[in-house]
Amino acid sequence: GENVEQHPSTLSVQEGDSAVIKCTYSDSASNYFPWYKQELGKRPQLIIDIRSNVGEKKDQRIAVTLNKTAKHFSLHITETQPEDSAVYFCAARRNAGNMLTFGGGTRLMVKP
Amino acid sequence: EAQVTQNPRYLITVTGKKLTVTCSQNMNHEYMSWYRQDPGLGLRQIYYSMNVEVTDKGDVPEGYKVSRKEKRNFPLILESPSPNQTSLYFCASRGQAVAQLSYNSPLHFGNGTRLTVT
Question: Which of B43, B106, B112 sits opposite A102 (nearest CB)?
Answer without folding.
Answer: B43
